[in-house]
Design a protein that fits this description.
The structure holds 2 protein chains of 2 kinds. By secondary structure, chain A is mostly helical. Helices cover 73% and strands 3% of the residues of chain A. Chain A has one domain: ABC transporter involved in vitamin B12 uptake, BtuC. Chain A has 13 helices and 4 strands. The N and C termini of chain A lie close together (11 Å). Chain B has a single domain, classed as Orthogonal Bundle (ABC transporter involved in vitamin B12 uptake, BtuC). The chains are: A mainly alpha, B mainly alpha.
Chain lengths: 328, 348
């Protein structure tokens, strides 16, 4: 089946059944989890628990929006996320006493954004491998962030801002969730309604054809990585402000959490396919699953048994459907 | 722009870029020797080699996976799981049997990765991310997140103690692994086919190479070396911990890439990986001796990594990328062919 003779035809209509399965799998999964969760635990379907789920989602969710762009533009993945989260968090809290929370936050976001420019320059314009580049820049940025604060845990002192972010402001929805929703809607509109969004899909589907059509391929790729770094820094700022404490390892695991969500949402690592709502759906599914396991007494460290299987299963299903659909 | 271009195309600079791994290795070793007194003393050398041996063995397996253009993020989790098997099964199987079981665990982890990547056709980055998360959770599940320790601490000493006043056993394991990998990649048909599959899987398949078997084998091999590394680390510390090897995958990938292996596949060598591991070892030893905090070490390591992949890019983009001794000897007779440098490859 790998020989040239049996390659699938170039243009194939995706089978309707597969198409439908691809679209409804995620919503059905989320609904099923809501039902299972309610059956297994009485605390699950309460406003308090579901609000917590939303708050937990928000920090990673902001990164997921950026990571979706990286996936669709065929940039593989951004492994520098933990460093960007850390630099945003550490700078915010360490500058808080002298400059105040908001200026500190701004500096944190700008620092992550500057690091994102370097990512974009190397990956977009120099065509370096994204995995190894973001690994290297992540190591450097995390080192610089730690050196800047002396490698210690930083504590903040701004309970007003903390309660503003986690407090329920509008319709009982916490501010931080509203911020996440704003980022998600913004990202969705950028991807689906603008020329830049079309460039992102084009660059991910067929880089050569895209370049031939005078689409700024380098810029598009660079922008995706710049966005992810900036959003990660922003996410780190929010994390630091809600926790009022930041240690250098604060962002550890966020890159894999974000990748997990995007992958479970069915966004292709091969580029050109997916959207922000799908990725957010994947995140919702993962967060709900994790929440149900916590409520049923399964320790966080062991939840990876289910999460690992979920990632592999989701992608295997995706690959299978594509192969049957003829999209190889 | 043009002067820069000329500088980058001068034979001297191109030679430096071509032998960048050797240049970086000599530079770091020189720096280490001048900063750390007594580094050239055999005992110090033996000790610092012993400390990197575990990482080195993991890097040997990763070299093969990276050569094939794939990634294996799960090696750290495999290392931890095999260590837990090595210590935890000592009561049932005896120390030797448990060590074998540890290696078997590594091989099984490799089979899992091979199944995900080759059979289910999942992208290796995502597949090994999934197995990384899964195996790490399995470690926590089996040990209840607590490190376990063995009964006989003396048994493990054989791994890290210097043999007859020379290197420790695990250093020898690492060096022999590098040697075997060198022979495998350079002198055997299987080695050449590995490069073929890594450069262009479809072309290799079309030429009658069973690419999928080689891919599967690469992941099994990587699992095997990670398992062996886990056995050595757990025996040396007489501990099996679910927290072992959390940074191993990324550090080992860095070592292999510093050694000149390309993530796109098809390029890399055993000696390069040896060089990459030695560079990291030299940096760590030196900066620790100077009591520089770890985060500065990270900045240095990251910068070297970034510099090397950038140089690799320049080297592979330049018209004289196929730089050989011959072309160096014929220096002066610059060919007049117009340079076809791609815009994005240029250094501003």
């Amino acid at each position: 089946m790998t020989s040239a003779a049996t390659l699938p035809p170039r243009v194939t209509e995706e089978k309707t059944a597969n198409k439908i399965l691809g679209w409804i799998a995620l919503p059905v999964g989320i609904l099923a989890l809501l039902v299972i969760g309610s059956l297994l635990s009485e605390q699950f379907f309460t406003t308090r628990n579901l609000t917590n789920v939303l708050i937990n989602m928000s920090i990673v969710g902001i990164i997921v929006v950026g990571m979706t762009f990286v996936f669709i533009v065929r940039g593989l993945a951004d492994l520098s996320v933990p460093a960007m989260v850390a630099i945003g968090a550490l700078l915010t809290l360490s500058l808080q006493p002298s400059l105040g929370s908001l200026v500190g936050a701004l500096v944190g976001i700008l620092a992550a954004s500057a690091a994102g420019l370097i990512n974009g320059l190397f990956i977009g314009y120099f065509r370096l491998n994204p995995v190894i580049t973001t690994l290297a820049t992540g190591t450097i940025v995390l080192g610089i962030a730690q050196a800047a604060v002396g490698g210690v845990i930083v504590y903040g002192d701004d309970p007003a801002l903390q309660s503003f972010l986690t407090g329920r402001i509008i319709l009982g929805i916490p501010t931080i969730v509203l911020i996440f929703l704003a980022v998600a809607v913004g990202g969705h509109l950028l991807l689906s309604q603008t020329i830049f969004g079309r460039w992102v899909y084009a660059a991910g589907s067929n880089p050569d054809a895209t370049k031939a059509s005078a689409v700024p391929l380098n810029f598009t790729k660079a922008a995706a990585f710049w966005m992810t770094a900036t959003l990660s820094g922003f996410s780190g700022v929010l994390l630091a402000l809600t926790l009022q404490t930041a240690r250098p390892g604060i962002g550890t695991g966020y890159e894999f959490d974000a990748i997990t969500a995007v992958v479970v949402g069915g966004v292709s690592l091969l580029g050109g396919f997916g959207n922000v709502p799908r990725a957010i759906g994947g995140l919702l599914l993962v967060t709900l699953l994790s929440n149900i396991m916590v409520l049923n007494g399964i320790p966080t460290a062991s939840q990876g048994l289910v999460m690992g299987a979920l990632i592999a299963g989701a992608v295997a299903l995706d690959v299978y459907l594509r192969r049957r659909g003829g999209a190889a | 722009m043009n002067t820069l271009k000329r500088v980058f195309e001068s034979p001297a600079v191109l030679t430096l870029i071509h032998y960048r791994v050797v240049v970086i290795l000599i530079a770091t070793l020189f720096l280490s020797v001048s900063l750390v007194p007594g580094l050239t003393e055999f005992r110090t050398l033996s000790l610092s080699l012993d400390r990197t041996a575990t990482l080195g063995v993991v890097a040997v397996g990763l070299t093969v996976v990276l050569l094939m253009g794939k990634l294996d993020l799960s090696v750290g989790s495999t290392l931890a799981l095999s260590g837990i098997a090595t210590i935890g099964l000592q009561d049932q199987l005896g120390p030797f049997g448990a060590a074998v079981a540890g290696i078997v665990v590594g091989v099984l982890a490799g089979v899992l990765n091979g199944f995900l990547v080759v059979t289910l056709q999942i992208n290796s980055l995502v597949a090994t991310l999934a197995s990384m998360i899964f195996l790490r959770a399995l470690c926590h599940f089996l040990t209840d997140s607590n490190p376990i320790s063995g009964d006989d601490p003396l048994f493990g000493l054989t791994v890290s103690r210097a043999l007859g006043g020379t290197f420790s056993l695990r250093t020898y394991v690492f060096l022999i692994a590098i040697l075997l990998l060198f022979i495998w990649l350079t002198y055997t048909v299987a080695g050449r086919r590995l490069y073929a599959v890594g450069s262009n899987e479809h072309a290799a398949t079309a030429s009658g190479i069973r690419s999928n078997r080689y891919l599967f084998g690469a992941f099994v091999f990587s699992g095997f070396t990670a398992g062996a590394a886990g056995v050595m680390q757990s025996l040396a510390t007489n501990t099996g911990s679910p927290a072992f090897g959390e940074a191993t995958a990324l550090t080992a990938i860095a070592a292999v890439v510093i050694g000149g292996t390309r993530l796109e596949g098809g390029r890399g060598s055993a000696l390069g990986t040896l060089g990459g591991v030695l560079v990291l070892a030299a940096i760590t030893t030196t900066l620790e001796y100077e009591s520089v905090p770890t985060y500065y070490q990270n900045i240095v390591t990251g910068s070297i990594l970034l510099l090397l992949i950038l140089l690799d890019r320049i080297a592979s983009n330049s018209p004289r990328s196929a730089l050989s001794l011959n072309s160096l000897l014929s220096f002066g007779k610059r060919d007049e062919t117009p340079t076809e440098k791609k815009q994005e490859g240029k250094v501003p």
